[in-house]
Structure prediction request, 658 residues.
Amino acid sequence: MKNTLLFLGILILQTGLFSQQLVFPDMEHKCSRAHFAGQFAGQSQDIIQTPLLHDYDVKFYHLDLQVENNTVDIAGNVTFLAEVDAAQLDTFAFDLLHQLTVDSVLINGNPFDFDRVGDETFVPVSPALMNGFLFSARIYYHGTPPTGGFFSGISTAYDPTWGKNVTWTLSEPFNARQWWPCKQVLHDKADSVWVFLTTDENNLAGSNGLLTTVTPVGNSKLRFEWKSGYPINYYLISFAVAQYQDYSIYAKPQQLMGDSILIKNFIYDSPGCLENYKEGIDMTVEFLELFSDLYSLYPFSDEKYGHCLTKIGGGMEHQTMTTIGGFGFGLVSHELGHMWFGDNVTCATWSDIWINEGFATYSDYLAHEFIVGQNYPQIWMEQAHNFVMSAPGGTIYIPPEEITYENVGRIFDSRLSYYKGACILHMIRFELQDDDLFFQTLKNFQQEFMDSVATGLDFMGVLNVTSGKDFTGFFDQWYFGEGYPTYSILWNQSAGNFNFTATQTTSTSTTPLFKMLMAYQIGFTDGTDTTVYVCQTDHVNSYSIPVSKTVSNIVVDPDNWVLNKVGSITVEATENISSFRFSLGPNPARDLIRLQPSFRSYPPYQLTLTGINGNKLWEGTFTENDIVLDVSGMREGIYFIRLRNGDGAYTRRFVKVR
Prediction:
C-alpha cells in the first residue's frame, strides 16, 4: 500500500514518458495510512479477537451488497463456506463493527440466535458441528460505518477535478470488519471469493477477479458479479463504485507465448480524465511483463489485473484490482509489485509486513533500473539511503507487542517497513554477487509460498537453500537489528601495495557490528580506477591490495549497494613510514589502550591524539617504550593517535566503545 502526502525531496525526471516525480517522502511509498494513525486511534477501540475464530477454516466468501457512489451506507448479506478445524464447533464467531446492525444469521440455511459483544458476533450452534464438517453461514446486515481519513474501511468523496462521486473500501490492516462480516485472521486465506455489487445503472462497480456478468435487477439498478478463484486474504477483498468508463489494455508476458493478460481500468467517465492518466496507465503493461520475468508469471493470470480510480491518497493493492489515486510511475509499479508480494504471498503476521512493503518498494526500484535506466536507479537508491539513515535506529521486523490498533503507524513506517525493507533486498543482491541467483530466490519464494502466507524467516530459509549460504547473521543484523554502519578509512601506498584500514562504527548499540561484504573503488593518478570487494569481519579490518599504479583516492561503496555512511578518509602519513611502527590494543578500547613502538625504536615519543574531524584533543611526551593511555572518560567514536620520534612518525586509528 502506498500513500502520497508528505515530501522530503523531489527530483524531476526530465525525459519524455518518465517526467514523473522521483520522491522519497515520509509517506509517498506508503500504500498505507500511518499519517492518520493518531487521529483515528483516538476514535477507536482496541482490537480483541476471540480464539473461537480459529475453530474454522474459511473456504469461500460470497459478498452480495447494495452500494452507491455517494454514501458509505451498506446493506446485504455475506456467506461463509467453512470447514470445522476444532474438535467441534459449538459457537460460530465473526468480526463486524458494532455500529453495523446484524439482521439475521443462517447456519446451513437455518436461522440461529446470536450475541454481539463489542465488534464480534457469536452464534451458538446446536448440535455442535464436528471436526472436518463443511458448513455455510449467511449473515444479513446493514448500516452506516464510521468514516473519515485514510483508515476508514469504507469511504466516499467528491472529486472536484473530474466532477464525480466515488465510494471505495480499504481494509488493511484491521478494517474489513468496518464494512462486511469477516474473519480477520491473516493465515486463513479464503480459497475463492465472489463479490456481487448492486448499484445505480449509471455506475460501474469494480472488485476482485473477473466480471462474469452485469445483471439488471429493477429500479434502475445493476448487479455487477465479480468472481475470483484464487486464494485471498480478508483485507484484499474490496470494491469501488463511481460513474466510471472502462479502459482495458493487455500485457503479454513471455511465459504466455503470445497469449495476454487483461488489465481493466475503471477511470472516471469525465472529459479529459482518460487522456490525463492514459500514459501512466499504459506503463502497467511494461511493469507486468518485467515483473513476470523477474519474479515469475503474474500470479492471477487467468483473471486480470486492473485499477479503480478513487480519491485515495496513494494506492492499495487489492487483489487483481488496485484502488488508486493517480498513475505516477512509482505508485503504479509499487502496487503491481504487491500482486506477488502481499497478495500471492502475504505476510504471515503484521510483524513481517516487510514481505509486503519492502518487496513492493523494491519493485519500484527495479522498474527504475530495468525500464528507466540512465542514472535514475542510482538516484533512487541514494535518496532511499538518505531517508533510512535520517534516524539512527529502528527495526524492519516489528515486535508483536508493538502491533496494536493504536500503533498502525508503526506497521506502515515508510522509513523502516518500506525503504529499509527495500534496501536490505538490494544488499542481499549485493552479498550474492549473482543477479541470476538473486532473482531465482524470488521465484523460488513465490513458488514455495504461493497462495499462502510467509514470515521474514521463511524468506531467509528460501534464500539459504537457493544460495547455499547462511544469511542468519545478515538477518540478525539487518532484519531484527537496528541502525547502520559508518566506515572510516586510513590508507597508504608502499612497496607495490595499497594498504588500508577500515574502521566500522554503528549508529546504535543494538547492533554493534555489521559483518558484511563491502566494495571499495581505488582511483589512480592516471584517471583509471578498480573496485575491490572485501569482507568486514570486525570493527577494524586491514587490507593490502597489490597495485602497479599510484593511488590518488579511495571511495567507499561507489555504487550505493550498502546502507552506510562514511566518517573520514585519511591518507596515512608516509614520512619514514617503513622505519617506524607501533602496535595498539585493544581496539576497540573501553578503558585502557596500550601502545608499543616497534623493535629498535627509541624514546622520547611525541604523542598527538585527534578526533575524527582532525581536531587536536591532547598532546604529550613519553620516555618509555610501553605507553598506556586511560581512555575511559572519552566519548564513543573514532580517534587517531600519532606517534613521532627521531626515526619518523606513524598514525593509527582506534575505536572507543562503552
User: Anything to note?
Assistant: The first strand starts at residue 2 and ends at 3. The domain at 484-572 is CATH 2.60.40.1840 (Immunoglobulin-like). Confidence is low (pLDDT under 50) at residues 4-30, 32-46. The chain is about 20% helix and 40% strand.
